[in-house]
Amino acid sequence: MDGNGRWAQLRGEPRPEGHRAGAAAVRKIVREARRRGIQALTLFAFSEQNWQRPDFEVNALMSLLLQFLVDERKELLENQIALRAIGRLERLPREVREKLDELARETAPGARMTLTLALSYGGREELVDVFRAMAEEVAAGRLAPEEIDEALVDARLPSVAVGQVDLLIRTGAEQRISNFLLWGAAYAELYFSSKLWPDFEEGDLVAALDHYKTRDRRFGRVADSRPMKTEVAKRGTE
Ligand code: IPE
Ligand code: MG
């Protein structure tokens, strides 16, 4: 979700105003994703690198996050959306961590969509944490090096608990992954929107999903005998 700061600057407002507008966009997009039957939505809300921003901006983001968690409780429960968080959560303020834990407990039962907030998250950091844990197990004799394979890494990565990434959307006109779900996004379809995140609306999510439907995902294999992708696309919109 990129472009909050520029959105505010374009209006001559302080950057936190952009984050406030960005939080409103999150509400709309989560609701639309749920309505469309998306099973897992992971939002890059705060990166490990974002801690280096000025204190006033980090504080504004943390209080917006807390507010979001308080405000959305009812909506999450009513719509059977499980909330979870990934990242180096120990760096978050205590009240935020407590709220996250409480909501994760409350929203898990009977969920039909999982909303994962990536907070204090970095894709490389997540991998390093898993490698270190595995190395410790190997050193302690609890894990044999030959047991380490892709399936084991999948099973250890918190971001992959909801599955591999099918579609990765980045807003804000930048065309880079910026340390998001590196491992799980190995075969993700990438979709870049030039809209700034606060301007990203339900129709933009639908456009990204429609684009996804036209993709032919081969995973390194050759195309099968399915109809040409234009045919698939046409049928997808019928
Ligand atoms: C939002 O956009 C991402 C967050 C860290 C919450 P930015 O704050 O990166 O906005 P730009 O890129 O400066 O416009
Ligand atoms: Mg940015």
Structure write-up:
The chain has 238 residues and is α/β, with parallel strands linked by helices. It has two domains: 4-122 and 159-237, Decaprenyl diphosphate synthase-like (Undecaprenyl pyrophosphate synthetase), CATH 3.40.1180.10; 123-158, no CATH class. Helix content is 47%, strand content 13%. It has helices at residues 4-10, 15-35, 55-78, 94-107, 123-139, 150-156, 202-213, 229-237, and strands at residues 40-47, 81-86, 113-121, 167-170, 189-192. α1 (4-10) packs across α2, α2 (15-35) packs parallel to α3 and α3 runs parallel beside α4. It is globular. The model is unreliable at 230-238 (pLDDT under 50).
Bound molecules: 3-methylbut-3-enyl trihydrogen diphosphate, magnesium ion
| CATH class value of the largest domain | Alpha Beta
Helix residue percentage: 40-55%
CATH topology of the largest domain: Undecaprenyl pyrophosphate synthetase
What's the number of extended β-strand segments? 5
Q: Number of folding domains?
A: 2
Strand content: 5-15%
Q: What radius of gyration results from the CA coordinates?
A: 19 Å
Major beta sheet summary: 3 strands, parallel
- Under CATH, the homologous superfamily of the largest domain reads Decaprenyl diphosphate synthase-like
How would you spell out the order of helices and strands? HHEHEHEHHEEHH
**Uncertain spans:** 230-238
What is the overall shape? globular
Summed up, the helix count is 8
- Judging by the overall fold, what is the CATH architecture of the largest domain? 3-Layer(aba) Sandwich
Arithmetic mean pLDDT: 95
Distance between the ends: 30 Å
Major beta sheet, strand line-up: 1-3-2
> Which structural class do you get from the secondary structure elements?
alpha/beta
